[in-house]
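Minutes, project huddle
Topic: does the predicted pose make sense with 6-O-phosphono-beta-D-fructofuranose bound?
PN asked that the exact inputs be recorded in the minutes so nobody has to dig through chat later. Recorded below.
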Amino acid sequence: MRIGVLTGGGDCPGLNAVLRAVVRTAEKQYGSDVVGFRNGWRGLLDNDAMPLDRPMVHNLLTRGGTILGSARVAPQKLHDGLGRMREVLDAHGVDVLVPIGGEGTLTAAAWLSSEGVPVVGVPKTIDNDIDGTDLTFGFDTAVSIATEMIDRLHTTAESHQRVLLVEVMGRHAGWIALNSGMAAGAHLVITPEEPFDIEAVCEMVTARFERGHRHVIGVISEGATPKPGTMPLRDGGLDEFGHRRFTGVAQQLGEELERRTGKEVRTTVLGHVQRGGTPTSFDRVLATRFGLHATIAAHEGHTGQMVALQGTEIGLVPLADAVARLKTVPPSRLGETTAFTG
Ligand code: F6P
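Predicted holo structure (tokens), as shared on screen:
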């Protein structure tokens, strides 16, 4: 058998570990081989391929990013290119395609599968917002990085009696803010799931200083929004993929907070540092197990499926089900945080 692989969307620590596991399992267990397509779906449209064998994936376990490169491709371009993608897959003798990606890549994978292309999906994203899997690899690394950065902000905030706001990634889901905020003892966590009330934020900050505390640490997801009509947030419009362009919610919240409370506020935007560098041991293991089980699924004919962490086991869920909705933070988890912060 020949497996085709590609990595799509934003990169994520652990992608290389999946590639390594796919190649090693395919060769060792099945005597199969693997071809990689560069830069996500673009590699399939442009016939930009590279053979992947064991020497090629040597030393990849600890390496962040993806040796295949990654890119976003507009859905319309993909739909128009179905015939071309079939031709390229046939030309390379690919029996099963394993796309490794987030919401966009897996939605495209589900569509390809519905068009009759044999596909096994692998979920990745630091945002942890793919449904049907308990976790995605990359998330643990991003939370660890964010936690370390927030830990460091406590002392400087205390020294200056300031409010320090940290903006973390999380377009639609606040998992990174929630977990890094809890791990680093933040006093305020704001996620996209629940629009924030600037009045309530001001009251919390003022009350905390009045109680004699010397600092406030707030963690905010990049995709957070204020309750309508409570404070302005600049509109960045949409990018070519239909994604909202962010305009720096933490900075704007900080300016408003400073104006209303008179407290000094500083803002740190963590940005792509959360996606860079080596994966944590947890993510290396999850990515490796996903690669292993995707390769087994491909050989056993379980196509149209996505590998998923279910408790401690790796199972399969239909791709169509996995992409039907995003996995956002449930109110119960948000409630756990508000129960003791402030
Ligand atoms: O989906 C993962 C993610 O890191 C989001 O949290 C973030 O909004 C987006 O990718 C950033 O994408 P880009 O690297 O294209 O700016």
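Observations noted during the meeting:
- The longest strand covers residues 2-7.
- The pocket of 6-O-phosphono-beta-D-fructofuranose is lined by residues 10, 102, 125-127, 169-171, 222, 275 (CB under 6 Å).
No decisions taken; revisit at the next huddle.
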